[in-house]
Amino acid sequence: MSSENAIGRSIELDTKRSRLWRRKGADLLFAAAALAAMLAALIVLLALLGQLLFDGAGRLTWQFVTSFPSRFPEQAGIISAWMGTLLVMFLTALTAVPLGLGAAIYLEEYAPSNRLTDVIEINIANLAGVPSIVYGLMALGLLVYEFRLGQSFLTAGLTLAMLILPMVIIASREAIRAVPPQIREAAYALGATKWQTVKDHVLPYSMGGILTGLILALSRAVGETAPLITVGALSFIAFLPHPPIQSDPPFISFQWLFDPFTVMPIQMFNWVSRPQEAFHVNAAAAGLVLLGMTLLMNAAAIVIRNRFRKRVHW
Question: pTM of the predicted model, to two decimals?
Fold first, then answer.
């Protein structure tokens, strides 16, 4: 009887070892597939960056960065395009951040759990997947034709704000939801109101995730082309917008909001569509500048996330 039990235990032990080896093999296979996927993405990025450097590095001069577009490729520059990109991104952030963060706080902390809230959440998730050209067509009909804002910086900023607003809401909600409920319960136990709990505890602990989501959403907006073409971005602008600060009263001017605009992707698209090879070199150099701006924004997101993570202790 004892020998039969020993044989049974031996068979059971061999079965467990076999299952363990199969699981370890599956883990190694998954790790190898994940590593291959990461290397493939990295190789594509390096190949793209190498091609842009090979084509456009020689054109990256101070004169190229500070010159206006020209019909002569050796005299053409990107100052109006990158200035337009910065101003459009400023308006996009100014619109999308308060609206998106406010909506996320309401939906996560204040909204009751009912059918209306479910419908709103489903629509926000669906809007995050809508193609960007649809936002451009909507902005063309609503902002340009209905509200008569014209083909201006203001229209471009509001269009991109509508585009990234669902992503801002979703990222902010995920960051707020990650705060443990014990933090809120402890604040309520000490007599704090809901707003005091959100302001003093929830938002500080979730700010790292919120800022990371915001910057990544803006990084996507900085490369968008289709909605801006739809609302009337120009490919050739040889002047800068009106300055926001003037020497005469009332000293602050909003006229620049209604100036015509162009951005880096539009300028690149214009140069690539031309037959002259020298304009293609200019497009590669502009691509390097745009890629540098995007990488800087992503690096800022990583630094901000790490800095806020160090402050979280629970």
Answer: 0.82
**Placement of tokens 């804002």 in the chain:** 149
What pLDDT, in 10s, does the model give residues 42-67?
Answer: 999 889 888 888 888 888 888 888 88
CB-based contact 287:52 (threshold 8 Å): yes
3-state secondary structure of 245: strand
DSSP string, 98-158: HHHHHHHHIIIII--SSHHHHHHHHHHHHHTTS-HHHHHHHHIIIIIIIS---SSHHHHHH
At 252 the three-state DSSP class reads: strand
Question: So what's the pLDDT on residue 314?
Answer: 62
Distance CA 83, CA 124 (A): 31
| pLDDT for 9 | 76
User: What average pLDDT does the segment 163-177 reach?
Assistant: 92
* Residue 112 to residue 121: CA distance in whole angstroms: 12
Contact 86, 94 (CB under 8 A): no
* Cα 231 to Cα 312: distance, rounded to the nearest angstrom: 43
pLDDT tens digits, residue range 275-286? 888 888 888 888
Alpha-carbon distances of 246 from 146, 170, 243, 252, 254, rounded to whole Å: 31, 40, 7, 6, 10
- Cβ atoms of 212 and 304 closer than 8 Å: yes
Cα–Cα distance between 251 and 254 in angstroms, integer? 10
Closest to 287 in 3D by CA, of 51, 38, 118, 128: 51
CA distances from 284 to 89, 156, 278 (A): 22, 24, 10
At position 57, the amino acid (one-letter code) is A
Q: Contact, 97 vs 168, CB < 8 A?
A: yes
Is residue 202's pLDDT more than 70?
yes
Total Cβ atoms within 10 A of residue 166: 21
**Cβ-contact 234, 155 below 8 angstroms:** no
